[in-house]
Amino acid sequence: MDRFCIIVNHEKDTGYTTANQIKKYLEEKNIYSEIFDESNPVPAEAEFETAVVLGGDGTMIRAAKSLNETDIPMIGINMGTLGFLTEIEKNNLFTELDKVLRKDTVIQERIALRGTAGISGSERDLGLAVNDFIIGKRGFGKIITINVYVNDQTADEYVADGVIISTPTGSTAYNLSAGGPILSPEMQAIIITPICPHSLNKRSIVVSASDRICVKVGRTREHTDDLATVSADGTLLTKAETGDTINIVMAEHQVKIIQIEQDGFFHRMRDKLNRCEKE
After folding, report:
1. Considering the entire predicted model, what is its pTM?
2. Closest CA to 228 of 66, 219, 192
3. Homologous superfamily of 3-110+254-278
4. Model pLDDT, residue 204
5. For this structure, is 156 an active site residue?
6. Residue 227 DSSP SS3
7. Beta bridge partners of 109
8. Is pLDDT of 113 > 60?
9. 3-class secondary structure for 27-46?
């Protein structure tokens, strides 16, 4: 018998109303399911075939991180606004869920990133990023110098507000706003995009997902350290300064997302971005 876990953003699904409706619907079809949220995550040893995630892109990203080593494929139900990562709109919930039960779907595998940082001489694990790692200037401080190395070779030096190291999944997030390219989400590639570079000829670089990226905080002013922050998927992880390094590689496990729509990524991208412009 199929086993479903239902992961809920309780702020988007007040009182777990929709989650309980899904649970009841599955039980009527003799399918076992359990409801979890961020305070009660899915146990690593749990055996589920499918994860149904209720929320927006942020909920999907957090669920992807918590499920990363389980290889459980996820499908998102959009309870938010744009929902680039979510597949099902709430008004089509049970019609689309039936397609999942019939396995009239495909599983799309997307890379994630793993980071470590050398801060003040000590090594720190930065965990996973589904969208991106961002090394940016601290607060409203002055611009910083960022040196980027790919496989120990100098790729570029940016005097800028910072740099984004993005997956193809994250290419439609901050990377897009910063002028970076959009990549098909199944590509095995990493995007390096400067944020507001202090030069007109500085552009994004796309490298192989198997490449090792090192970002080093440089020195813009001779007698003053540059002050930076490091974040992953919008969450602040640590502070950094001149001489500190952030190392980023492709994560061992990929993110598995269930796809129903036949129109594909670019149709969804146009729909979501056009909707954003109208709003």
Report:
1. 0.91
2. 219
3. Probable inorganic polyphosphate/atp-NAD kinase; domain 1 (3.40.50.10330)
4. 96
5. no
6. strand
7. 256
8. yes
9. HHCCCEEEEEECCECCCCCC
